[in-house]
């Protein structure tokens, strides 16, 4: 044995111990924290221009309520407890000033428009009950109110058109429990094991078959988590058209494929053994198969995104600034998220982009399912905007904004963290090229975009609403659908209307249609609509005339009238259709913004339907009309409960007026057909259920504006691409080695329920 070997081994061991000690010590050192993100949202007292679009503050809402209580000369009940025969305030929202007033203020140095509120009131305690809309102002201290109902709608609004208040649904629940169910105690006890707590109801709309009806099917489910997919087979039709609740009555009953006159007849048939009973296995409180509780334990944490040098956007009151973008945002009680005064590089490209409506039309062999046509704006896409969960609904480090509303109450309600804003690295290049011919280089730009998001939970469905701003000047409007599928009790020929999801659960076929208003102002207010597309032409090769070449050529057409610019849902639409400005770019082309729709919609309800005009916006994938103050929305919250005599019929907007060199609005409809399937249990995923539109510069600039982004990467084979001054990515170990300042997790979504 070599006598020096033990010394060599000892020295080697000491070196290894030293290295390990250094590694452990280095791990123990905490990386520096990233730059603070706490000062992103600024609430300022100064009246910036964007505040002309700002939602009402809680203080302003309270002032409006107090003013109405003291100046209408009638008592106003709290809508949360109101009877149908009461007067009450249904909602208070911002009255957006006219576009002409706003542009004089924003662009012409004119006076700031008066700040006003729009209040919707139900007058049930009158000789002629009606719905009235008042404009109240000026805020913050109102001194006047104007009845604008006739001006807006051409006449008074009948009381039966009013959206159903939460208090009315509570009263209907009480009617079912105390009156209807009391007539069938044996059936309910033995078949449903009814104990007053173990059933849940889902309402259907519209309420009947003709104007004046207020007759609703109530579908019964087991009252468990995810009850929407636990039908029990019983459905009850209630006539609640009378303002005297003692006059409410059951009109029909449906159980397991059979119809009955009322609950008394159902009870009698059951006691006499003349009913085919299909008893549903009682589900545990967590819903069993419908539970969203994970079936696997937590493991390695999913990837997180953070901003090593702090956010690159700012939020000041209702205005967002991001690189070359700026816009104002707001939340309408009925239509949800909306944007105003959208500018890129300081120039306005759109005056308004807003959600208008979300429609679902269902099929089933059960009465509730087959008669359902949800117009979610009448329930309130803004009212049902839900609190957002950090790290799931939005990135953990996003900026979260509270919203407020007065809806079915006398007091403002706060929706904590119901809107989020964040910059997102989409994990792919916005553009890139690797050159291995002639010169050797790489050039690219990360696709990092700003997202503003809200999520509305309307009954069983959750709609994720996004507006996305890209560095090349493009804007995307997108909606993703998730939540629970609606279902019917599986019986008879049910599989004609969907797929079986569980033992007694039929996932019912339905359509989704989403309508947007896009008021583009490209290079100014006056625009024209132009279509570019392609056609193949046959020609002889000039250098070889005996040979034929088929070559694509550009086709061009100016669409002069609204009729030409109204494209039916399943019709062919020009692949390049754009708003053209009266100015040209450096290369002599009209500057434009192109509309590109992403949709795989089902079929629209037949136009012969008695209720089709109420949803006639869904006839069109795109309709471009002249902008008019008297046509602010494509639909109305009153259409849901009286679609047979619609308060607003979009079809009337399309009346062949000239649209050349006019202020134009694009009404965009995107949608998808949903045939629920077993993978919709426990609930529906967003993957594949995403539709919307893009607004893309089309010769608007002289070159791609993203070339001026600070995020660009470029290096050649002759450069040292490991040097920070050449390639900023080489600096990431230094610039992005901080620890993100993640705030503590909080959630206020279960408070004040």
Automatic annotation (TrEMBL):
Name of this protein: Amine oxidase
Obligatory cofactor(s): Cu cation
Keywords: Copper, Membrane, Metal-binding, Oxidoreductase, TPQ, Transmembrane, Transmembrane helix
InterPro entries: Cu_Am_Ox_Cu-bd, Cu_Am_ox_TPQ-bd, Cu_amine_oxidase, Cu_amine_oxidase_C, Cu_amine_oxidase_C_sf, Cu_amine_oxidase_N-reg, Cu_amine_oxidase_N2, Cu_amine_oxidase_N3
GO CC terms, sorted: plasma membrane
Originating species: Grantiella picta
PTM (free text): Topaquinone (TPQ) is generated by copper-dependent autoxidation of a specific tyrosyl residue.
Gene3D superfamilies tied to this protein: 3.10.450.40, Copper amine oxidase, catalytic domain
Key word Transmembrane present: yes
The Copper amine oxidase N2-terminal domain, residue ranges: 76-144
PROSITE patterns in alphabetical order: COPPER_AMINE_OXID_1, COPPER_AMINE_OXID_2, PROKAR_LIPOPROTEIN
Domain Copper amine oxidase catalytic: 305-707
SUPFAM superfamilies, sorted: Amine oxidase catalytic domain, Amine oxidase N-terminal region
Domain Copper amine oxidase N3-terminal: 162-257
